Amino acid sequence: MTAKTSQRVVIAQISDLHIMPAGMLAYRRVDTAAALARCVTELNRFAPRPDLVVISGDLVDAPSPSAYKHLRQLLAPLEMPFAAVPGNHDDRDLVRAAFPGSYAHQSGALNSLRAIGAVDLVLIDSVTPGRDYGTLERETLAWLETVLAAAPTRPALLFLHHPPFVTGIEHMDVQNLRNAGELAAILRRHPRARLVAAGHVHRAVATRFAGASATICPAPNHAVALDLDARLPSSFIIEPPAFHLHVWSAGEDFGSVVTHWVPIGDFDGPHRFHDAAGQLL
Ligand SMILES: [Fe+2]
After folding, report:
1. From ligand 1's centre to the CA of 85, what distance in Å?
2. Quick one: what percent of the chain has pLDDT higher than 70?
3. 3 pLDDT exceeds 80?
4. Interval 229-262: pLDDT, tens
5. How far is the CA of 15 from the centre of ligand 1 (A)?
6. What is the pLDDT of residue 29?
7. Has this prediction a pTM greater than 0.90?
8. Alpha-carbon distance 151 to 183, whole Å?
9. CA of 38 relative to ligand 1 center, distance in Å
10. CA 47 → CA 12, 83, 217, distances in Å?
């Protein structure tokens, strides 16, 4: 590890891929496979190359071996390492089978720890089997406490599918992390967490949680409509696809994290501000 890389860690987060078996559309309308293919292309051409891509759940839309096989095919062109947590649309056993050797436990929750340079990435399974809302199970809470206690001087970035806070979109908020208070209590005992990054809502959201920055990652496909009126029916909308880029920089108090919203697509530019002589164009 060079001095330069030890001072900065770049993590791309993509979320809620909702991959279908090959040839099928999600909700009879959304080509989630094409959306992920565009996202992979965007990640591969991004410079500097992210150190890791974290996929924060809902890897497939409905769990089946063929859906996870399609997911693996779509991720194969990705030129950098990736790690995934499950979402409420996933099946633990099928995720474990799709990515063997990726998780801390042989059965149950799909938790994992990745050390990237000076930073620990703590990837947390928030799935409640058979339900859409999130829970951190007893074993996961104990694992998290142990992991965070093991290296108290290293900064930590946490990833999980279900947001541990409300967004104002009520039909999603009823599915958020039910025992967020237990997560908050752990983070207050271990203040090295600099980021709590979630998915699930298919929209870019930023707030604070237990002393850390907290975000929700947008999706490469469909967004949940920004309906702050609880009387509206739950609905999705095709907005500009995007992912998050979390840039950790070394510094006091476990360093700092900035989250960039990165749109996916071909755009006009970049154009230089100045000519070769330094004059403003
Ligand atoms: Fe989702």
Report:
1. 12
2. 98
3. no
4. 988 899 999 999 999 999 999 999 999 999 999 9
5. 8
6. 94
7. yes
8. 18
9. 18
10. 12, 20, 20
119-123 and 112-116 strand pairing: antiparallel
* Contact call for residues 160 and 125 (beta carbons, < 8 A): yes
Written as one string, the DSSP assignment of 165-191 is: S--S-HHHHTTSBTTHHHHHHHHHHST
What amino acid occupies position 203?
Answer: R
For ligand 1, the distance from its centroid to the CA atom of residue 154, given in whole angstroms, is 31
204 CA to centre of ligand 1 in angstroms: 13
What gap in Å lies between CA 84 and CA 159, rounded to an integer?
9
Roughly how many angstroms between the first and final C-alpha of the chain, as a whole number? 39
Query: Beta strands 193-198 and 156-159: pairing type?
Result: parallel
Say if CB 163 and CB 15 are below 8 A apart.
Answer: no
User: Residue 32: which residues within 8 A CB-CB, separation 6 or more?
Assistant: 17, 18, 19, 20, 25, 26, 61, 220, 221, 222
Q: Is the pLDDT of residue 2 over 80?
A: no
